[in-house]
What does this fold into?
Amino acid sequence: AALNQLLEHPELPATANARLKRIHGDGEGELVIDLNRLGDRRLWMNVKSRAELSVSEGEEEHAVVVGRELRIETTR
It folds into this structure.
């Protein structure tokens, strides 16, 4: 999670402002380790996140929502 804050981005025009309104993420996972071998035996992880931003220039304001879902899985 993050607080409401102004964002800086090198590609934004000097007359524009970007603000992070809300960000949230959560996930779950499992790691199985075989103590007789080096390294993990099995790993899986799911992570989801959603960020809500606003970009304004003068009187115009645009809402931007970015959602991501990531799944990582390894097995030896």
